[in-house]
Amino acid sequence: MKIKKRPVLLIGFMGAGKSTVGQALSKRNQCSFIDLDQYISKCEKRTIPEIFEQDGELGFRLYEFQYLKQALKNYDIIATGGGIISFDQTFNFLKTVDADIIWLDAPFPDLYQRIKNDSNRPNVKSKDARAVKHLYSSRLSRYNEIAFIKITTKETLTQTLSEIENVLFANDQY
């Protein structure tokens, strides 16, 4: 069963809960889900840090764009990586895609606590809180520009899911 007639894309900074929310949302609504970073890693047979190390961030962003287009054809809910909006080609594509784009966010201190010790995040590795906050701040306007709605993940998972479902299904009754 599809959650809606078009895919739901979850965007937002690292640690916002895109994967957790996406998995739970798909389970509650009996629809398909993919974590784009995991999909890239599986298809390329390398971890995200390995791709960054071997191909650079640009190489990773090219894979991300390629696999996003595939995922949109095959999945109902897609959790994207935090930097998906940083590559102009992908960002411009997202402006035109027929999907509900939901920006998940939380206060920066919460995000930083969730990601600061995660070795699978190449854009955080060996950066202090100030540098990570600068990266976060540099992405805000792009998240805002393409998002259908912004939802906070500061509250419980159940509250976050309810808020998303209320937005997604608000017009279905008419």
From TrEMBL:
Keywords, alphabetical: Amino-acid biosynthesis, Aromatic amino acid biosynthesis, ATP-binding, Cytoplasm, Kinase, Magnesium, Metal-binding, Nucleotide-binding, Transferase
Xref: Pfam families: SKI (PF01202)
Group of enzyme by EC: transferase
Gene Ontology molecular function: kinase activity
Binding locations of ATP: 15-20, 121
Note on cofactor: Binds 1 Mg(2+) ion per subunit.
Needed co-factor(s): Mg(2+)
Binding locations of Mg(2+): 19
EC number annotated for this UniProt entry: 2.7.1.71
Annotated compartments: Cytoplasm
Functional note: Catalyzes the specific phosphorylation of the 3-hydroxyl group of shikimic acid using ATP as a cosubstrate.
PANTHER family on file: SHIKIMATE KINASE, SHIKIMATE KINASE 1, CHLOROPLASTIC
Family per similarity comment: Belongs to the shikimate kinase family.
Protein name stated in the entry: Shikimate kinase
The organism of origin for this protein: Staphylococcus americanisciuri
Gene: aroK
